[in-house]
Design a protein that fits this description.
The chain has 5 helices and 3 strands, in the order E-H-H-E-E-H-H-H. A 3-stranded mixed sheet has the order 1-2-3. It is an alpha+beta fold and 85 residues long. The two termini are 31 Å apart.
């Protein structure tokens, strides 16, 4: 979830906003006249950086694609769905 606040409101509610970011993983967009900034938890940031790293590594992406193909070949999704429904 993401909320938008202006810089004045952000400054006023800094500690409350930071607490929300850390405890609920909420993101805040802080708007200013010169542009916007995004406040997110360290965990969310690290997850985003890891995702970008994986997506930028062609060998890792190929390995993921191969794993998906192997998984898709090994599982008949129609049978799985029939068992669930």
């Amino acid at each position: 979830m993401s909320s938008v606040v202006n810089a004045t409101q952000f400054r006023k509610d800094l500690f409350s906003i930071l607490n929300d970011v850390v405890t609920t993983d909420e993101r805040f967009t802080v708007t200013t006249k010169n542009g916007n900034a995004v406040i997110m938890s360290e965990d969310a940031f690290n997850g985003l950086m890891e995702t970008l790293y994986i997506l930028s590594d062609p060998e890792m992406m190929e390995s993921i694609r191969e794993a998906e193909e192997t998984h898709d070949e090994a599982v008949d999704w129609r049978i799985c769905m029939k068992d669930i429904l």
